[in-house]
Design brief:
This protein is of the alpha+beta class. 39% of the residues lie in helices and 24% in strands. It has a five-stranded mixed beta sheet with strand order 9-10-11-13-12, covered by helices on one side. Strands 2-1-4-6 form a four-stranded antiparallel beta sheet, with no helix packed on it. Strand 9, helix 4 and strand 10 form a beta-alpha-beta unit.
Length: 352
């Protein structure tokens, strides 16, 4: 055997580089570009090997993980690298080798993978959260605005009710009181004025009670309102020697929904006005209060056997006009049937 050092040549061929293995959370994965992994699979290990036909044990490696590592790391003889707790995103691992003569690979080996974002970091989820919170803020704003408007309307209604129901009565009481002081009036005239003052005072007390009840925040169902109406009717009929017949459905039949304050007020004042007309003006001996509920609609009928009136007469009283106005506010259907000496029937149908 012989050796001629003059004929010894340096290896000028570029060494080859290859990624030989890939693991995710210590589990082998495919060597394929474009793979996607869930956000919790964020620990990755890359194995690689350089191919050289001379001094293979003296090969060194340089690698980087884009986009985080812009520069190549210092040469090392290790043939694997592990990245832990990677953030969601797309990564490209690149590696090249350097032969014992210092010749680098012409092109690095690479592998591109993607770690998906968790759903709470996704744009659609964050956009949805913004929309939901924006909707909640808008609803709260609208609710406060609605309450403010409702409060202003309540104040306006209270002022109107106090003016219509109380102020006129108090003015009349003051005027009658001054008239009574006039010595020129006879005793029977003064007694009539005193009776009128007493009547107006009682009307004012009843009106104030109705106003307070109408704005009472406590809830009340249709059944509660009808029982209240029955309690109002019984003593009124007893004072006028009128026989009252009351037919109210059981609580279980009527809807459990609480009436709104304005709806409760309009329905109560309508029914109260209809009963007052029968008790005070009809000269009846019997009075019927009948209520039924079916398919979401409540029907209340008030009937008497009194003197009745001519419904074709154009000059309706204030009470009938007020009843029609309240029926319109309730969006209900009103039916008034009456003839002279044939009694009167008032029927209202409202949706509850």
């Amino acid at each position: 055997a012989w050796f001629n050092p003059n004929r010894e040549r340096l290896d000028t061929l570029s060494p080859l580089i290859q990624i030989s293995g890939f693991q995710v959370n210590n589990i082998d994965a495919e060597l394929r570009d474009g793979q996607e992994f869930p956000y919790d699979q964020k620990n990755m290990k890359f194995d690689f090997v350089g191919i050289s036909y001379r001094s293979e044990n003296r090969i060194h490696y340089r690698y980087r993980l884009l986009p985080g590592e812009k520069e190549w790391l210092s040469p090392t003889s290790e043939r694997s690298v592990t990245y832990r707790s990677l953030a969601p995103g797309t990564y490209t691992f690149q590696v090249l080798c350097i032969s014992s003569e210092g010749i680098e690979s012409t092109s690095p080996a690479h592998l591109t993978v993607t770690i998906l974002r968790p759903y709470w970091q996704a744009l659609w989820f964050q956009g949805g959260i913004v929309i939901v919170f924006g909707g909640i803020i808008y609803v709260l704003y609208r609710y406060r605005l609605f309450k403010a408007i409702e409060m202003e309307r309540l104040r306006t209604r209270l002022a109107s009710d106090l003016h219509d129901e109380i102020a006129s009565n108090l003015s009349s009481i003051a005027m009658y009181s001054k008239i009574i002081q006039d010595v020129s009036y006879r005793e029977h005239e003064k007694r009539e004025l005193m009776e009128r003052i007493s009547e107006l005072s009682q009307q004012s007390v009843d009106a104030i009670r109705d106003i307070i009840w109408a704005i009472d925040p406590r809830t009340e169902t249709l059944y509660d309102l009808l029982i209240r109406l029955k309690d109002f009717l019984t003593p009124s009929c007893h004072a006028k020697n009128i026989q009252a017949h009351v037919d109210i459905p059981l609580r279980e039949i009527l809807p459990p929904t609480n009436l709104s304050p304005q709806r409760r007020k309009n329905l109560w004042l309508f029914l109260k006005e209809a009963l007052n007309n029968s008790v005070k003006h009809s000269e009846c001996t019997e009075l019927w209060l009948m209520c039924s509920y079916q398919s979401g609609k409540c029907s209340v009928e008030i009937k008497d056997n009194g003197k009745g009136f001519d419904t074709t007469h154009k000059g309706e009283g204030k009470g009938l006009k007020t009843m029609r106005m309240r029926c319109e506010a309730l969006e209900g259907m009103l039916e008034i049937t009456s003839q002279p000496d044939m009694g009167t029937k008032v029927k209202i149908v409202v949706e509850i």
